[in-house]
Design goal:
4-stranded parallel β-sheet, 15 helices, Rossmann fold, 3 domains, 5-stranded antiparallel β-sheet, alpha/beta, Four Helix Bundle (Hemerythrin (Met), subunit A), RNA-binding
RNA sequence: GGCGACGUAGCCAAGUGGUAAGGCACGGGUCUGCAAAACCCUGACCGUGGGUUCGAUUCCCACCGUCGCCUCCA
């Protein structure tokens, strides 16, 4: 079985076969750091993280590049307004992005190239395009000449006739002058007092699309395996990247294009512009756990389907994560017996085999994590049933622990829960736990129930098991 | 107007040409000092209308509904 991904260009499932055997080169469009990234943006970044994690399971080497767009018209406008340099303007947003990314357990890319650090490469590429007759200069600015690239539109299916200039209502089309509405800016000339770079093609700053072509080529080569982003990047961003890159190199730019669907709110796309967004800190402030948010964004539905965000969905995800955590706790706390394999061990090992096969198949089928988790949950019930019936051996316990570790190597939520758990009970909470254990030993149930309520008010839930009292931190939202 | 996606139980959602995983919530049980956890039982004619087929939720067409992109939004 090999990993297949849905390719936006061919609109088919395509097997991942790295250009360089054993080494997958992955480029994912990162954030424009003009503001705090919201959880809709993170849906895409988490999808890419899951992809990256699964690729690492399937191939010996993965090189992952995510760009940071740290120059664009909005950033320049804000920097001017604040009297900041570009770096000063973007530094806090980059720091915030790093923090949120870490909160959600997203593995860092191997490279985070910043547009402002690749001006030279962009200028080279623009000069190369001009020599190839694919770029022209107007009033000092450079534009890509669509007519020079007949294949334009092959990714999005967008043809010239269908495009309605300004239909999105997001741009001021008169900002720059172009020969053809479809032509797009490679380099924007600016005056001596404006923020820009003095280069051999003049003073200015880069257009949006050119950075991804220049940086991906610099770090991954002129052709590489997988390029990802949100669906809103298909047109024009990725369409333009293809045009620039292939017009310059004459080579196929990317093998497989993957795009994730949007996160919505009440049916509409979550977007800064609409004001219906929430940031990672916003969600945590309401009492949700990072694990629940990650689960919601990663596994609640398939990455190519839009997902409507709501408090109910978050609560739902919180409980789903709790079910996994409770299972892990149970497995870790198993009182195992040392004896030859019994029928229970056999039954569990059989379940685990089925779970592994099903999980891998689902993931190989275009990263169907919801399907994969369905298989896991279904298997957990089978295993729980067996565990209810009697003790198992230490080998079975290890097998289950390895299974959970492998599932979470992709899902990445148990690791976040474990991180949260390090918040140990404070002195008072610990005293209540001790007192409650003592009260139960003395069969003073009134006192033990009282302490249970008291601990619950601190977000600590206590359970009694044959092995004694056990506690766990629960989300305040849960009540 | 062009291109594209989606519509499955109370909610979320996977999936298949031969009558539908899983999660959450609800109800009833087992277990428990009581709980919790776990387990058992209980729920769907898969947007509407046609067509293809022995047979369609799954393929085709139309329609209805929702949404996305159409020049710097993940």
């Amino acid at each position: 079985m090999t990993l297949q991904l849905h390719d936006t260009m061919s609109r088919e499932l395509v097997a991942v076969e790295p250009l360089e055997p054993g080494h997958v080169r992955l480029y994912t469009c990162g954030p424009t750091v003009w503001n705090r990234v919201h959880i809709g943006n993170f849906r895409t970044f988490i999808f890419e993280d899951v992809l990256r994690r699964w690729l690492e399971r399937r191939f010996p080497k993965v090189t992952h590049v995510m760009n940071l767009t740290d120059v664009d018209d909005r950033i320049i406008r804000n920097a001017v307004e604040h009297g900041f340099s570009l770096d000063e303007e973007t530094a806090p947003w980059i720091a915030a992005f790093d923090e949120d990314r870490d909160t959600l357990g997203i593995r860092p890319a191997h490279h985070y190239p910043r547009a402002t650090q690749y001006i030279e490469q962009m200028v080279d590429l623009i000069a190369r395009l001009e020599r190839a007759g694919a770029a022209y200069r107007t009033d000092g600015s450079y534009y890509f000449h669509i007519a020079a690239f007949p294949e334009y539109g092959k990714l999005s299916g967008a043809r010239a006739e269908g495009l309605v200039s300004g239909a999105s209502g997001r741009i001021d089309a008169d900002d720059y002058t172009k020969e053809d509405v479809r032509d797009f800016a490679l380099w924007k000339a600016v005056g001596p007092d404006e923020i820009g770079w003095d280069t051999r093609i003049g003073r200015g700053h880069p257009g949006w699309h050119i950075e991804c072509s220049a940086m991906s080529m610099a770090l991954l080569g002129e052709s590489f395996d997988i390029h990802c982003g949100g669906v809103d990047n298909i047109f024009p961003h990725h369409e333009n990247e293809i045009a620039q890159s292939e017009a310059a190199t004459g080579k196929r730019f990317v093998r497989i294009w993957c795009h994730s669907q949007h996160l919505r709110v009440s049916g509409e796309k979550m977007a800064k512009r609409l004001g219906n967004f929430a940031t990672v800190p916003d969600v945590l402030e309401e009492g949700a756990s990072p694990a629940a948010l990650r689960y919601l964004l990663a596994a609640r539905t398939h990455y190519r389907k839009s997902l409507d965000y709501s408090d109910d969905l978050l609560a739902d995800s919180t409980m789903a994560v709790q079910r996994l955590v409770d299972f892990q706790t149970r497995v870790d706390g198993l009182h195992t017996v040392e004896e030859d394999a019994n029928p229970r061990d056999e039954a569990i090992l059989a379940s685990v085999r089925l779970m592994r096969i099903g999980f891998d198949e689902a993931m190989d089928d275009d990263l169907n994590l919801p399907e994969a988790m369905g298989i896991v949950f279904s298997g957990l019930r089978d295993v729980n049933r067996v565990l209810d019936s009697g003790p198992v051996g230490a080998e079975t316990q290890r097998t289950l622990q390895h299974l959970l570790a492998d599932v979470d190597d992709v899902l990445g939520v148990l690791a976040l829960v474990a991180r949260d758990r390090q918040a140990a009970p404070d002195a008072e909470e610990q005293r209540w736990l001790d007192e409650r254990a003592a009260a139960r030993a003395a069969r003073d149930f009134a006192q033990s129930d009282h302490l249970r309520v008291q601990l619950a008010s601190r977000g600590i839930e206590v359970e009694d098991t044959p092995q004694g009292q056990r506690w766990k931190r629960i989300s305040p939202r849960r009540g």
